[in-house]
UniProtKB/TrEMBL annotation:
<dbReference type="GO" id="GO:0005634">
    <property type="term" value="C:nucleus"/>
</dbReference>
<dbReference type="InterPro" id="IPR052865">
    <property type="entry name" value="Zinc_finger_BED"/>
</dbReference>
<dbReference type="InterPro" id="IPR012337">
    <property type="entry name" value="RNaseH-like_sf"/>
</dbReference>
<protein>
    <submittedName>
        <fullName>Zinc finger BED domain-containing protein 1-like</fullName>
    </submittedName>
</protein>
Amino acid sequence: MAQERLSSMAIISIETEIASKLDYEEVIDKFADTKARKISEIIKIHTGANIATSISAILIEWGILNKIVTIVSDNGSSIKHAINEHLHKYHHPCVAHTINLIVNDAITSNEELLNVLKKSRALVGHFKHSVSASTKLKEIQNQMNVPELKVKQDISTRWNSSLIMLERLIQIKASLSEAIIFLPHAPNFLTALEWELISDCLPLLKLFEIMTVELSGENYPTLSIVIPLIRGLQYTLRNKTTTTATGTLLKKTAIEVLARRLGILECNKIVAKATFLDQRFKKTGLGLVDNAINMGKWIIDKINFIMKNTQENETSNMPINGEPNLL
C-alpha cells in the first residue's frame, strides 16, 4: 500500500542518506505528508557507480525513477558524481550542510576564537567530570537562588554544539565564577576580555543556527525560502555591530565564505523559480534584477515545453485508426 501511494505521486524530490535498512512504511508515514522523500540503503564501497546503482534499484522497485526531479545530498564528490554522471538527475546541495561548512571555515580561521573555545572546553570538561566541581556549582546556584543548570560539552563535529556550550557558559557565568574560587584544581577561568569576546561572537553564530533550523523543516517545503534566507542572513550580518577584533574577523570571514559558497544559488534557475512561485516572495524574494525581470517568461516557457512533450507523447500512443488505445 505504501509503495502504491508513493508511485502515484506526480513528481518527487528525494534526499539521499546511507542507512542499514529501508522500511517502506516508515518512509511513507514520516515523509509523505511533509512533501519530503527520503530513500536510503547501505553501500559497502561508496563510489559514484555503486551509489547510483543502489539508488536506481530502489527507485525502479518503487516505480518512481522517471518522476524524480531533484536529489538533495551533501557536497560529497561520490554522491554528486552518482547523481550527475550516472543517474543524470538534478543535484541540489543540502544548504544546511553547506551552512555547517561556512561556520566551520569562519571559526577555524579565527585563532582567538579557537583559543577561547579550547579554554571553554577545558573548563566545561572539569565541571563535567569532577563530582566535587559539579556539586559546588549546584550548591552555589542554590545559594544564589538561580536555576540549577549544568555545563554543556560541545562535539567537535557539530559547530552548533559549541554555540550551545558558550550560551550555557554565559547563562551560568555568575555561579560559575563563584564556584571556581573553591576549586583549587580547576583549569584557568575565562578572563573579562574572553567573556566579552564570547558575548560579541554569539549573536553572529546564532544567525546561522536560526537559518539551519528554518531549512531543516520537515512540515513545509524549503527550496523557495533558500534565496530569501541567504539574502536576509547577508543583510543582517553586514549590519551587525561588533565590539572586538575577534568578532569583527568572524563577521568578515562569515560574510565572505557565505557569498562564495551560497551566493551563487540565486543564479540557479530551479531555486530562483521556486522562490518566484512562492506567494510570500514572488519578485521581491530575488536579488538579481535579471531573475526578477525574466522569471515569468522562464516559467511560461517551461510550462509550454512540458505541454508540448505531453501532447507529443499522447499522439505517439494513438493507434493508426485514430481511436485511443485503452489497453
